[in-house]
Amino acid sequence: GVELTLARRPAPGLDLIFGYAYTDSEFTDFADYPGPGSTMLDLSGRALPFVSRHSLSAALAYVRPLNEAIRFVFRTDVSYRSHFYFDPRNTLRQPGYGLWNMRVGIEGDRWGLYAWGKNLTDTRYRTSASTDATATALATAGDPRTLGLEVLLRF
């Protein structure tokens, strides 16, 4: 695999960050995976669970002094990961998905007040999936759109 990160400050207080990762992962020798009954399955050449081939990220962060004691802060980021499998047999697949997050607020040296949102597009995705003994699919949903306020005090 390979990873690339680019960061740039085109103006004072403005940061741009981009990231990309490519991962080509597979089982090279996995001929003894327990299958139905007493059979063994050869999973050689199958993709490793939870590993996306492509992942991308981008962020924009901006900080601007409002006066000598207070700063305006803003950050937004997006991320994308291509499809991946939850199981070694590659039968439980999560399609590729993207997430968008944002945070805005004001802060001083010892305090901060922020509003934030995660998964702003309310993308539906799963963080895990499996099947039980009756072949019923079980899954854990990723976090839905979440909004919040944050008060920060530093002691």
How would you explain this protein's 3D organization?
- 0% of the residues lie in helices and 57% in strands.
- The chain is mainly β.
- The strands form 4 sheets. It has a 7-stranded antiparallel beta sheet with strand order 1-2-5-6-9-10-13, with no helix packed on it. The protein has a two-stranded antiparallel ribbon with strand order 3-4. It has a two-stranded antiparallel ribbon with strand order 7-8.
- Strand 5 and strand 6 (71-81) form a beta hairpin.
- The two termini are 43 Å apart.
List the helices and strands and how they pair.
Layout: E1 2-11, E2 14-22, E3 33-34, E4 40-41, E5 54-65, E6 71-81, E7 84-85, E8 93-94, E9 97-107, E10 111-118, E11 126-131, E12 137-141, E13 146-153
**First-residue to last-residue Cα separation:** 43 Å
Proportion of residues in β-strands? over 45%
Order of helices and strands: EEEEEEEEEEEEE
Question: Strands of the biggest beta sheet: in what spatial order?
Answer: 1-2-5-6-9-10-13
The radius of gyration is 21 Å
Q: Tell me the structural class.
A: mainly beta
Question: Describe the biggest sheet?
Answer: 7 strands, antiparallel
The whole-number mean of residue pLDDT values reads: 94
The 3D shape can be described as elongated
Estimate the helix proportion, in percent. under 10%
Unreliable runs: none
Number of strands: 13
Q: How many helices in DSSP terms?
A: 0
